[in-house]
Design a protein that fits this description.
The protein is an alpha/beta fold. Helices cover 36% and strands 15% of the residues.
Length: 412
């Protein structure tokens, strides 16, 4: 196990990283995960300075096929693998398993995202690897967990959105369930997993102990929706009417849509003042949040009629000046060009071999920025260098490459 202060691992591409929050310099992570949830978990650790090795079979991570694909990376896999080095090894071969076990002896964290028992069949399960490295943190990310009637099922983002109630929560006005148009469950699972790993690393630093962490997409999706779940349970299981406060929604103006929310009666009074509809404050239909929720369709219709009379920028300026929560409803292209986003330099433009210059967002709160890290690697991009670090000599490496136990990207 390496010390948290060890800075010997070749992780960072640029030298101007002194101000970055990098507490995990010297931490070594083996990322066996595929798809998005597990790989993005590891990418967050890489942004905090960890040396993350993406371990893939010869056929590669299926996540490389997600989104628009160019070369060996897809547009959705790029952020999930940013800042990593890549090792390609066939774990179905005895020599391949020997390579991985040697790497495990120097690892602090191992992450996998296969169905339960897949890693055991490969001889890479927790019990086997803990014999090689007892201080290791071994993280298993699965759809439903490793026990129970669903344990053997594969669980994807879209399926878990359905199972967890998220699709019904997001139903349309006709009551038809809808998935959220991004891989929300994968991303939030990665966030919970990274937090758990951070806590386990602290424990590891304090007492040197290892730990196994089991994180399911179902558990993460339920935890993420806890406020919505409780609200609906308390309303006797009703799935409609998820608003907790009114007004709250998206409204058309003359030049685009804006989002408006009022959190308390005083804010609603400010909205009435700004819209020149002071009489609403005293109307029994709207005089309290409970009344507004009961009459929300009528209230939203009235607000829409007023907002449609002027341009979006006029209302955004006027409502913000009045202390009412509001903002533009942006498409992603608008977000990249938003004046606040540009002012805080939220997107870092980085060059990628596959797609050219791309805007990427770094980890909130600190860490290495995308332009301070290695780009997402091709399959087997760093195999030879990683084998050298693990103690293999040139003759042994040549043999591993020759018998296709390992693969080096530029030696196909």
């Amino acid at each position: 196990m390496t010390a948290l202060s060890d800075t010997s691992t070749p992780m960072v591409r640029k030298a101007d990283t002194d101000d970055a929050l990098t507490p995990y310099k010297g931490i070594r992570v083996l990322d066996f995960a595929q798809g998005l949830a597990g790989p993005y978990t590891a990418a967050m650790l890489a942004a905090m300075g960890a040396d993350v090795i993406k371990v893939e079979p010869p056929e590669g991570d299926w996540g490389r096929l997600m989104g628009e694909v160019n070369g060996e990376n897809g547009s959705m896999s790029l952020p999930a693998n940013w800042g990593k080095r890549a090792l390609c090894v066939d774990a179905r071969k005895e020599q391949g398993r020997a390579v991985l076990k040697r790497l495990v002896r120097r690892a602090d964290v191992v992450i996998e995202s296969f169905r339960p028992r897949v890693m055991a069949k490969l001889g890479l399960d927790y019990d086997t690897l803990a014999a090689e490295q007892p201080a290791m943190i071994y993280v298993s990310i699965s759809g439903y967990g490793e026990q129970g009637p669903y344990a053997g099922r594969a669980g994807s983002d879209s399926i878990i959105q359905a199972v967890s109630g998220m699709a019904v929560m997001n139903q349309d006005t006709e009551g038809t369930p809808r998935r959220i148009g991004m891989l929300a469950v994968d991303m939030l699972t990665a966030t919970y997993a990274a937090f758990s790993i951070s806590s386990a690393l602290y424990e590891q630093r304090v007492n040197g102990s290892g730990r196994r962490l089991q994180i399911s997409l179902l558990h993460a999706a339920a935890a993420f929706q806890m406020t919505s779940i409780l609200q609906n349970v308390l309303r006797q299981g009703k799935s409609r009417g998820n608003l907790a406060t009114a007004p709250s929604g998206f409204f058309p103006t003359r030049t685009g849509m804006i989002a408006v929310t009022c959190l308390r009666d005083s804010m609603f009074a400010s909205l009435c003042e700004a819209l020149n509809r002071r009489e609403w404050s005293n109307d029994p239909l709207f005089s309290s949040n409970a009344a507004r929720l009961h009459n929300v369709d009528k209230l939203h219709e009235e607000i829409s009629a007023v907002l449609a009379t002027r341009d979006r920028e006029y209302w955004i300026e006027r409502l913000n000046r009045s202390g009412v929560l509001c903002g533009p409803v942006n498409e992603y292209a608008d977000l990249v060009k938003d004046e606040q986003v540009r002012y805080v330099n939220l997107f870092k433009k980085v060059d990628t071999p596959e797609f050219g210059p791309l805007p990427l967002v770094g980890l909130p709160g600190g860490g290495l920025q995308p332009d301070q890290q290695l780009p997402a690697p091709a399959l087997g991009n760093h195999t030879r260098a990683i084998l050298v670090e693990a103690g293999y000599n040139e003759m042994q490496i040549a043999e591993l490459l020759r018998d296709k136990t390992c693969y080096q990207a530029d030696e196909a």
